[in-house]
């Protein structure tokens, strides 16, 4: 799969949530995905879901970081 195809898959997944995001939220998440793609890092749908949760205020960025750290501690 090419870089462009991977990026398009991420953007297409995000676009499914346009009805629950403001245009600012959608653009912010898209910019985050695009910035990571420039570095050849592509986010999974679950990571896009997490970005949506943060953007819509369901969780804070700090809560997301704490949850990730807890998961890493459990694995390690």
Structure overview:
It is globular and about 35 Å long. It is mostly helical. It contains 4 helices and no strands. The protein starts with a helix and ends with a helix. It has helices spanning 3-15, 23-38, 45-55, 61-75. Helix content is 72%, strand content 0%. Helix 1 packs antiparallel against helix 2 (23-38). The relative contact order is 0.13.
Topology:
Layout: H1 3-15, H2 23-38, H3 45-55, H4 61-75
Helix pairs in contact: 1-2, 2-3
CA-to-CA gap between the ends?
A: 32 Å
State the oligomer: single chain
| SS content category | mainly alpha
The profile of the biggest β sheet is: none
Individual helix count: 4
**Regions with little confidence, pLDDT below 50 for 5+ residues:** none
Q: What fraction, in percent, of the residue positions are helical?
A: over 70%
Describe the structure in brief.
The chain has 76 residues and is an all-alpha fold.
Primary descriptors:
4 helices; mainly alpha
């Amino acid at each position: 799969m090419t870089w462009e195809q991977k990026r398009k898959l991420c953007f297409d997944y995000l676009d499914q949530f346009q009805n629950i995001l403001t245009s600012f939220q959608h653009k912010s998440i898209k910019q985050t995905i695009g910035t990571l793609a420039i570095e050849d890092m592509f986010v999974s749908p679950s990571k896009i879901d997490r970005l949506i949760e943060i953007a819509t205020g369901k969780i804070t960025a700090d809560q997301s970081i704490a949850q990730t750290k807890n998961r890493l501690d459990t694995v390690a």
